Amino acid sequence: MKSKQFVKLVALIICCSMFFMIPSTALAKSAIDGRDLTPAKINGDKFKIGYIESAEFVNYPASFYYLLKGLEEIKWIKNIDHIPFQIGQKVTKPMWSYLANKEVSSSLEFVEDFHYTLEYMNEEDKEAMRNRIEKNEVDLLIVLGTAAGKLVSNINTDTPRMIFSVTDAVKVGISENYERSNKPNIWAHTDPERFERQLKAFYDLFKFKNIGIVMENSNRAKAFTPLEEIKKLADEFGIKLTVKYVDMPINSNDYDRYKEDLKNAYNEISNEVDAFYITVAAIDYHWLEETLDPFYKKNIPVFSQLGGKEVAYGALMSINVSSFKEIGQFGARRIVQVLKGEKPEELTQKFVSTPQIDINLEVARKIEYPVSFNLLLVADQVYLKIERDDE
C-alpha cells in the first residue's frame, strides 16, 4: 500500500474513529495481474464501442474520462490529451465526437452515432436504440447511470454491457449480487457501502443530532440521493433526519424560481438541524455561498455528497468515497478482459476506492470549526477560501 494511503488510513482512524476499506491503485492493478492485456482486434477489425448514459450529469464525464485514462494506461488508446473535458462539465457528447473523429486507437472504434442520453429521448428513440443493441451493432457498450443500466440490462443481446455510476446495482435489479452479476453479458461496478462510509465519517467528526437534506421532488433526484443510507445512519445512531422538498426546474427559464425555492428551503431547515448534507440536485455551485448563508450564520457544518466544486464554492467538506481515477483503472481492465474473451458475468465487479477528502478553510472559519492537524494531513484538496467568479 502506498505511503500516502497508509497515512490516510491511520489519520482517519485517529480523527474519525472509523476504518475505511481502502485498496490502493497498485491493488487495482494487481487484481488481474497475469492476464494478457495487450491491445488486440476482432478478426483483424477494431472492436466497435457504444455509449449510453442516463442523463447529463456531472459525474458521468469524469467517470468516462478516467475510464479512458485507464485504457490509455494499458495502451489501448492514445492521443487523448486534448479531449474536451474539464472537471465540473455535464456533457459527454463532445468527448465522444473527439474519440470518433481522431485516431486514438488501433484496436477500438468509438462509433460516432452510438452515443445516447436517455434524458432527451422519447419512446420511439429508445426503441430504435434497443433494436440496434439487439442486433449487436457494437461489440461492447459502456453504460453510465442507474436508469441506463436498468434499461440495457433487460435487453436480450449478446453485446457485453459494462455499467458504471450506479447507486446500487443489486437493489435496482441490474446485478444479482455485488461480487458478480451472474446475468449474461452484464458487468456493473459495485460498492454498496460507499455512502454509508461517507456519512459515518461525517458523523464521527461532528456527532450531530439532526441532519437535514433538501431534495428535488423527482425520480431523478431520488435515484441519486442515498436516502436509505441516511435513514439507516439515523436509526443506528439515534439521529433525527429532516427532509424538505423543492420542485426541480422544468427548463432553463425556471432556474430563478428554483433558486428562490432552494434559498427558502435552506433558510427554513437551518432553524431545525445541526448538520446539512447537499445531495445531488440541479443546483448551480455558483449559488452556494449565497444559498448556504443561513448555515454559516448558525455555525452549521455543510457536507457535500459530490465534493469538488461544491466544496470550492461553499460547502465545508466532502469525503468522496468513489475515486474516478481508481474506478477508471479497474473498469478499463475489466473492459479489456471482456474484449479478449472473458465473460462479463463471471468477473468480479466490487471495488472500494481510496476516499478523497476536500475541505474549505474559509467556510470552517465562518462556522467557527477548528480544523485539526490530522484532518489537514489527510485532505486531498484544501481550499483556503471560497471560490468566487468575480475575484
Describe the protein in words:
This protein has 391 residues and is an alpha/beta fold. It has two domains: 31-191 and 322-346, 3-Layer(aba) Sandwich (Rossmann fold), CATH 3.40.50; 194-320 and 356-383, Response regulator (Rossmann fold), CATH 3.40.50.2300. The chain is 38% helix and 16% strand. The chain has helices at residues 3-16, 25-30, 59-73, 93-101, 123-134, 146-153, 194-206, 219-224, 227-237, 255-269, 288-291, 293-297, 309-312, 324-339, 361-366, 373-378; strands at residues 47-53, 108-117, 140-144, 161-164, 186-188, 210-216, 240-246, 275-278, 302-304, 317-320, 356-360, 381-383. A five-stranded parallel β-sheet has the order 2-1-3-4-5, with helices on both faces. Strand 3, helix 6 and strand 4 (161-164) form a beta-alpha-beta unit. Helix 3 (59-73) crosses helix 14 (324-339) and helix 7 crosses helix 9. The radius of gyration is 21 Å and the shape is globular. It starts with a helix and ends in an 8-residue tail after the last strand. Mean pLDDT is 87; it is low at 1-31.
